[in-house]
Every structure is written in structure tokens, then in C-alpha cells.
Amino acid sequence: MEHFTSQKARLLCIIMVCLGLFSFDKAKAAAMAGTYTIGSSGTYSSFSAAASDLATYGVSGPVTFNVAAGTYSEQPVIGKITGASATNTISFVGQTDSSKVILTYASSSSSTADYVLELNASRYVTFKKISIIRSGTATYSTSVLFTGGTFHCSLQSCFIATKLDPDYGGSVAAGEPCVSINTADTGDVFNGNRIKHGFNCLCFSAAGYLNVVSNNIVDSGGMAGLYVLGSYEVDFLITGNTFNAGTVTSGSNSAVLSYGCRFETGVAKSFTITKNKFYATSSTATTCRCLVIFTAGWDGTNRNLIANNFFWVSAGTSGSTGITLGGGTNIDVVFNNVLMTSSPTSPGSCFYMYNSSSYPGSGITMRDNNFIHKGGGYCIDNENDSASSSWTSGVAIEDYNNLYTTGSTVAYYRATKYSSLSAYQAVCKATGGQSHSISADPGYKSTSSPYFDLHESGAAVYQAGTPAAGVTDDIDFIARSSTKPNIGACEFKPVFIDAGVTVLDSPTTYCYPIKKNIVAQFTNFGLYTLTGVILNWSVNGNLQSPVLWPGSHVSAATSAQITLGSYTFNAKTPYVLKMWTSQPNASSDGNNSNDTLVKTVQSGLSGTYYLGGTSPDFT
Does residue 487 contact residue 442 with C-beta atoms inside 8 Å? Predict the structure, then answer.
């Protein structure tokens, strides 16, 4: 009997051990790995259901959720998933493009759960080809929230949008962003997305390390496209993006400040801003600025770099700028193309340096840039730099730039206006002193709205620059010359015969409704001397009599003023003037992309008008 009992006990023990091993293996098998689907007939019916299992079971290998086409109205939260790593990544992938899968949730009057998608302390999580949209117009309207210290997470090829939120009060503040990163994060990547609207399209408001914003279209933030505040962003890479600072209006409210990117005091540290295109075009904003950075620091090894970018500003009535630095340490501003076409009452500038006790600056290099102002403002506004003859602060190196303006002041420097490059060279105390700089139209491919293309073509900037450490290619990844690079963002070789109309002197943007002469200038962008060219023009599409210009015009030079003819402008009427060159040197033009200048002229009121009555001019 005892023997039977002993055998029974041993058998029971064996069974219990086996069951324990089975349970252990089952628990191990429960960790997720492989490919799953989300959709009405998928593995999971919703993002939230998939997120729940991730949180419960963790992952033991790479996990991919393929999402079926459709609209998902929910607020998924992805937390810190057990087992997630650089190998065991977690991906939510939509269809062929982001429009097929829409993740959406309404905005709210409550700050609780202010997101459509939240990544909270997440590790190695990617959302790809998915639309993430915050619908409605309520106050709290963030679409994507990164919080809790995310690590190597990414949004790729997504469309992310929220409500229009114009900065109508003129306040620089962190309003409701479309995408918010509100706690310290590391290695997060935002690549290939279109991020649209919000007070700021993309907002970093805490410390960050090795984050990347690349190849996105960042569109019409109410105050800024990219806004950085709070603590340092260290080794921050911003590359290949298009920042559209366009008109933002909601109801009767319109934005009065418009920035492409703005970094507040002390938050940038060893950044790289390269190969981006900035367009500041807001028709309502008082001040339009493409890039603003206050007191950037550095990590002791890597200098800050602003290189190979396009900056175009067409709007703003006061203090608009292409690049603004409020002090800063060890910043290289090199190989950029800037174009200002706005005509503010308070002259704007292509490059604005603000250096003071509040915004100290040192070790800043400004070389190989095209600073082109066709709105009559300044190429450089460097008014607050040190007056010390030893030059111990601010812009330390300043040379090999192209400073060209249609106005009367090339540079505003230490409270004095300088009307020519030579006058500025005589007083500039930075190393180099602009001694190798030039003043010429660079021949941007297109300077007429809405197709602004700042690839340059003029012979004047060809091989006129000097190499800059760490910049080995141009905005289009074309290798730069190691000895004589071009000034500006593009490496190119000019053609032999090339001309284009570059300046409209008369009439101005607003004119009296009378008969006026049409006066313009052209530039020889080619390598050969011009001995003749035909100047053509039209008004509202109606061709006018062309003008044959005979003479001799050397390479890279701009002509004197030429009267093309006259035209009678009626009151209260917009006119589109188109002017272009043809048959330079009685032959074909080697580059037609820079031939044409288009300007819109608005004639004002003149005479007597009636308000009300039987035949009113205005009701």
C-alpha cells in the first residue's frame, strides 16, 4: 500500500512539473512576433486592440501590423512594450499611400487625452503611410503626442493634420501643435510626412538627442512650421524638408506672425540644417521669417551648420527676414540661397544678426551665400554687433558672399547704412571683411510666384566661393569643387549665351492710374559678352511691341534701365506684366529658365466715387 502511494505521489509530481513547463512555454509563446492585420476582418479590429495585446504580451521578434483601408475613429496609446529593441521593432503600416488608412478623432474642450495617437515611453515604434487627423475646431487639437521619453520612434510617409490655428494675437508661444514632443526623447525620426496646420505644425518642448526631421512638407502652421523651446535639442538634424509658411486664416482671424522654423533661447545645440526649402508667403502676416535661432550653443565638438538651403520671403510689412540669428556660438552659415521679394515699410533683410548682452554671439561664419533682396531692403542687417576694433564677438568670418539689392542699402552695419558693397567692405571688421564678395544677380531659375525656384544660373557666382569644412555637396547632392565651389546652394556650370529680364524699375507694385513708361533691366548670365538681345513684354497676356537692344554687355553684368514702351493703367485694376528676353547674340538662349520676369501691378483710386445712391461705385 505504501509502495502504491509512493508511486502515485511521484506520478503526481511529474504531472505537475510537466504542466509547469507547458505553462512556461505557453507564456513564452504568447510574446508577439511576425505579421498581423488590422481591419474589420483582420487579426485585430482596431489600433487600440492591437496596442492592448502589445502591452499585455510584449514582443519576442519584429512585429508588423498591416492596416486595411478604412477610417478608424479611436485614440490608441502605445506604451513601453516589453522586448522592443532595435531588432524587435514594431511597425504599423498602411496601404500604398497615406490616404487609404485614416486614423481620426475629434478635438475637445478638455485637455485630457489631447491626441489622436499617443506614443508614451515607446521604444522602436513606427507608423507608416497612415493619415492621422484631428477633426473639428475645439481648443485641444493635437494629432500626435510623443510623451514619457520616447526612444527611436518614427512617423514615416504619413499625412498628419489638425485645425487651422492662426497666431492672430501676434504672440510667440507654444499653442496647440499638430505634432507635440513634450518630454525628453532620443533618436526619433519624422521622415517623408506632410504635417499640416496647428499653432505649430511640429513642436519640440523638452530636451532631445539625435532627433531627425527629414524630407517632410511642413505646411502652414499658425505661428511656426517647426517650433523648438524648453531644453536643449542636441545634434538635431533638419534636412530635405519644405517649410511652407503660408497664409493661415480661420474665420475672421488671420496669423500676423509667420515662421518656417523658430528656436527659442538656448535650445539648439550642435544642429545641422541643410538642403531645406523655406517659403514665407503669408499675405496676412506683419512679419515673415524663414529661420530664427536664438543663442544656439554647441556640444564642444560639432559646430552648428546652416548650409545648402533655399530661403524665399515674399510677404510681411515689417522686419521680415530670410535668416535670423539672435547671438549663438560656433555657427556656420554657408552656401545658402536667399531671396527677398517683399517690400516692407520697415526694411527686411536676407540675413539679420542680433548680438547683444542678452543674445551673445561668437565664432559665427558667414560665407558663400547669395543674399539677394529684390524688394529694396538690406542684404545684411548686422546692427548690434560689437563696435570693438578687435572684433571679439558676433560674426567672426564674413567673406565670399553675393550681396545684391535693388534698393539703396546693401548692408546696415553698426547703426550705419552702406549703399554699396565697396563701402561695406571698407568698414567690415570680421575676418575676410567681405573682400572676396561680389554683387550680382545670381540668375535664380524662377523668381515669380507661385513657381519660385532658387537654383542659380548666373556666371557671376560660378567658382566664386571658397570651400567650407564638412560641406562636400550641394542641395541636390552634386559634389562641390574642393578648390573653387560656386557661391550659393547649387554647383553648376553656366552656359555661354544666356540672358534674362531681372528688374522692373517702373511702374512699382502700386501706381497711379495714368499712362506710364515700362522700364526694366536685364542681366547677362552667360560666359560670353552679349552684343544684342530682344526684350519682349506683355500686359495681361496682350503682347506689346518688342525692343531690340544693341550694344556690348560683359558676362555677369546687369544693364542700365531700358524703356520698353508705355501703357495706360486704369483705376482699381490689377495688371500682370510679363517681360522676357529672346535671341541673345542673334542665336538661341542656352538656358530659358531665367529669361522671364513676371510682376503684378495694382493701379489705385483716382477721381470722384459715389457711396450708396442709385449708381454707387461702392455699396
Answer: yes
- What's the angle, vertex CA 401, arms to CA 581 and CA 481, rounded to 5? 85
The residue among 305, 345, 355 whose CA lies nearest residue 325 is 355
Q: How far apart are alpha carbons 451 and 384 in whole angstroms?
A: 35
Task: Record the cell numbers describing residue 316, joined without a space.
Answer: 510681411
The C-alpha atoms of residue 13 and residue 156 are separated, in whole angstroms, by 54
Which pLDDT score, from 0 to 100, does residue 574 have?
Answer: 87
**3-state SS assignment for residue 23:** helix
Asked if 435 contacts 370 with a C-beta cutoff of 8 angstroms, the reply is no
Three-class DSSP category at 210: coil
Report the pLDDT value the prediction gives residue 463, as an integer from 0 to 100.
97
Q: Which amino acid is at 580?
A: W
| Residue 459 DSSP code | G
Q: What is the pLDDT of residue 345?
A: 65
| 521 φ/ψ sector (left φ>0, alpha ψ -120 to 50, else beta) | beta
Evaluated on CA atoms 240, 243, 244, 249, the torsion sign reads positive
Higher confidence at residue 29 or residue 247?
Answer: 247
Q: What is the pLDDT of residue 536?
A: 96
Whole-model pTM?
A: 0.88
Which pLDDT score is estimated for 593? Answer: 87
Average pLDDT over residues 253-261: 89
Contact assessment for residue 282 and residue 313, using Cβ atoms and an 8 Å cutoff: no
Q: Determine the Cα–Cα distance for residues 413 and 410; give it in Å rounded to an integer.
A: 10
d(CA 619, CA 602): 22
Q: State mean pLDDT over 525-547.
A: 94
Q: What is residue 25's three-state secondary structure?
A: helix
